[in-house]
Amino acid sequence: MDENRSFDVIIIGLGPVGAVVANLLAPFNISILIIEKNKMIHPTPRAIHFDGEVMRIFQNIGLSSYIKKIARPSFQGMHFVDKNNKTLLVRKANKDIGDQGWYNNWYFFQPELEKILRNGLNRFNNVSFRLGENLIKIKDFKNNCILTTNCAVSNKKKSYFGKWIIGCDGTKSLVSNKISKKVTDFGFDEKWLVIDLNIKKNSVRAKKLPNYTVQHCNPIRPMTRCCISSSKRRWEIKIHPNDDLKKILQKNFLWSILSPWLTPDDAEIERAQIYTFHSIIKNKWRKNNMVIAGDSAHQSPPFLGQGLCAGIRDASSLAWRLARIINGRADDTLLDSYTNERKKHVLEFIKLATRCGELINTGKKSLINKYFNSSLKENNASFNYPKPQLGKGVWEYGKIPLGQITPQFFFRKRLLDDKAIYKFILLENCNLKNNLQNQDKKLLKEFEIIIISANKEIKSWLKTINAHVALIRPDRYLYGVANNYSETTKLLNSLRYKLGPK
User: Fold this and answer.
1) DSSP letters along 382-434, please?
2) Which of 165, 213, 268, 333 is the most buried (most CB within 10 A)?
3) Is residue 148 situated within a structural domain?
4) Structural domain span for residue 468
């Protein structure tokens, strides 16, 4: 029985973000308890999109082969159209493998994803679960926390001790509010109706619908249409202040909205739910031994499909830091850099999603010139996802691409990360191995850095960044570069300074 046991880490919430954190931490021989208020996986869709960087993270937890079987790669991008269905803006897409070693965009059914992530945790004997228990109280001390839960079935209260608490418990996070209630609000606060549909096999009308996402920039009724799979579709529809919320959820109203595209003969409504979309970032992500990730830390309008992606990036950025701290290889101040790095990064996506929301709500072409670059034919505009630098943290500051996500290369017919699963990688093109001194070797061992001599593809990339050596973090962001043995030694020593115990 886990009650009254002490754990290295207690994770609150077993959604995708909490499950990824646990899958990343577990190989470090860390005792983990996961507390989740729901006994079973939520049966209906919520998030529906992730990108190539997230699939790369799934690769680093050893589950990408399973996830790609339940996810659909998307090659057609996203189209913003005006009230007359004329294209205003296109988010570009690509049918080729992206720079992360995977297709750039994937659509999925969240219950299937969560099942795979949970099953992945069954690989580890150091992970325990408390499902159907709701966190009701936190007492935080300098070196640990005491958590009190309430069992949904028995109504019995239980207590758990954790050295570290990770809040992945969503928008109403108790952990987040315990840290701080202060937020930075970027001004997007709207109610939207979300309708998920199961398409009937013989529907001719459904087959005529595009496979790409359509953003209807029509002030009369702003709307989003998404293709999750051949059998699942989603509509997101803005609710105006004078709309009757009870009427909106009635089937006759739902089908009246859907009627230009589908009828009850074409599909069944799986769920219809009203959400409030926000654009906020919590001011503090850490207090003492409590830290947050995902929706507990930030919320974005869904128009870019980056909400889940941001949370999974949080998980990847957080786990390697916390593992080093728990295993006595770093001071706990290392977690301060997690907040600094991720807040700046996620802000770029929230700002862009908010701009897209503004365009969807108004349909104003002037916003295209203001927020996006004009590069398509027929005077349509296009844009790609940003690749922001991290905020100040554990990387050598300098020009791009330092502090940016690095490409993933094919190396000896395998993806590069498979050679160093969630570890530091040192790519080199200067015969570095033959020049290393004992002190350098100690640093490589201390930080579990895997040296990989560059192949043709890696050499070409190193040339583009004017370097012969590149040090890549476990979360695949570029830590720093060097051009010779002496600079490499300095690079490794700086890593000790930034990561080592103070």
Assistant:
1) EE----PPP-SSSS---STTTTSBPP--EETTEEGGGGSTTS-EEEESS-GGG
2) 165
3) yes
4) 410-499
